[in-house]
Amino acid sequence: MAKQLAKQFDRSAEDLTNVVALEHVNIRVPDQRLATLFYITGMGFTRDPYLVTGVVNMWVNIGRSQFHLPTGKAQVLRGRVGLVVPDLKALASRLKSVRGDLASTKFAYRSGKGYVDVTCPWGNRIRCHQPGAAFGPTMLGMAYVMFDVPAGAARGIAGFYRQTLDTAATVKPFERARAAHVTVGQHQRLIFREGQGRLAKYDGHHLQLYVNNFSAPHGRLDELGLISEESNQHQYRFRDIVDPGSGKVVYTIEHEIRSMTHPLYARPLVNRNPDQTNRDFAPGYDNQPWAAPYGQ
Description:
With 296 residues, the chain is an alpha+beta fold. The chain has four helices and 16 strands.
């Protein structure tokens, strides 16, 4: 007879769903200089040093995820992006340093309990959280993207992700409103929060997900007529989220779906320590760890 161990574990907590990572959010910006001031100098993130290094696009690393910022008419996500950053006090200090240069834009920031709310020069909202149990070991990363959706849409959205992308999705409160919570990676979620106000018109921004089973969701989406782009062997796109019960489109946000055989999957991303400067340089502190050591 096997010896009964005193400590019991929730083994299901370690199960992964078909969607394995939220890799990037893509938002167009009109001015790469202002984007650099905001995302690199103010927010303290890292421009990818290896790919897309010209003046018409910028990839910005945040732990294992990115913002993609191609040049074009400003796009504004209908909701906000939730990030984890290691030091909120240092973040506020950096944001203060760029306030003058961004004075003629929509840039703003406000500190709260355990977070800093930031608005980019073109109106995109970002909430920066301090590390904590809700985000696992993440010290720097993209924890969630929250979308404002019409009243009554959450249940259909959750059903769509469960049935079409084969990922965990539940309906539960978020900030005093009903919301669909969709698992899209380890300690990563999409949150679709119901509201009463009128939504802004969708302007074409998109997000990118990696999936384990690449073909089955494609087949389901194709049957529904939802595939919007057959990009290449490793990637396709869709835009509309359809309520499985009614068959009606309940929300639109373009999804770039990649396989785990995509050449860019799990590419190591450089993350700098924004507190390291040439004036008070200390050897060995150039890199910013994106996760705490296991067990801490």
